[in-house]
Write a structure and sequence with these properties.
The chain is an alpha/beta fold. Helix content is 29%, strand content 25%. The protein has an 8-stranded mixed beta sheet, sandwiched between helices. Helix 2 crosses helix 3 and helix 4 packs parallel to helix 5.
């Protein structure tokens, strides 16, 4: 089951099949998706890039923190033409796709493959969706969440959601590295 480990955010996106997290801050998004992979294991992951993108040691550290040592199944798509084939080959399992639009081409085939998979999908994109959103199939995602680094931490900005209006959920950077309580605080009254 795909989860972020942030209970309030998970409550907002629990019914959405395709959820996209995006940011122009590479380090923030990178730490966040490693956390999500570790918490969501067992999970299938597609990495779209020529090199890098996934740190197995960081996933291992997060699995120790969250006491979840289930398997993480990984496939890499090196070329734009490989992305739809790789997504299709993962079957109908919960799927995490890291930077699906990395090559900035073959959008129609990639979106088609994402829609074909009958399970839940989390997409992590290194881009500015406000500028490039209409080009890259933003209509496909049920929820789009922007991660923004702030002075004392970071915040989730719900940019698009079926169940919620646009809101900002502030958090501390240290929350990325630890378990987060599910009391929700005042945020539970905002939705």
């Amino acid at each position: 089951m795909l989860t972020t480990g942030f209970p309030f955010l998970d409550e907002i996106i629990k019914r959405d099949d395709i959820v996209e997290f995006f940011s122009t801050d590479y380090d923030l998004l990178r730490i966040f998706y490693h956390r999500v992979i570790a918490i969501s294991a067992p999970v299938y992951v597609v990495v779209v890039s020529e090199r890098g993108g996934l740190d197995p040691y960081l996933i291992g550290r997060f699995q120790n923190v969250f006491d979840n040592h289930a398997e993480v199944y990984i496939r890499r798509a090196f070329k734009a033409e490989d992305v739809p084939i790789t997504i299709d080959s993962m079957g109908d399992n919960d799927l995490i796709v890291i930077d699906p639009y990395h090559h900035r081409k073959n959008y129609t085939k990639i979106v088609s493959s994402l829609r074909k998979v009958r399970s839940r999908k989390f997409l992590f994109s290194f881009m500015d969706r406000e500028r490039e959103g209409s080009i890259f199939g933003s209509h496909t995602s049920h929820s789009m969440i922007k991660l923004v680094k702030s002075a004392r931490g970071f915040k989730f900005v719900i940019a698009k959601s079926v169940t919620s209006r646009e809101i900002e959920i502030p958090s501390y950077l240290l929350d990325l590295y630890s378990k987060v309580s599910d009391d929700g605080g005042l945020l539970k009254y905002m939705v």
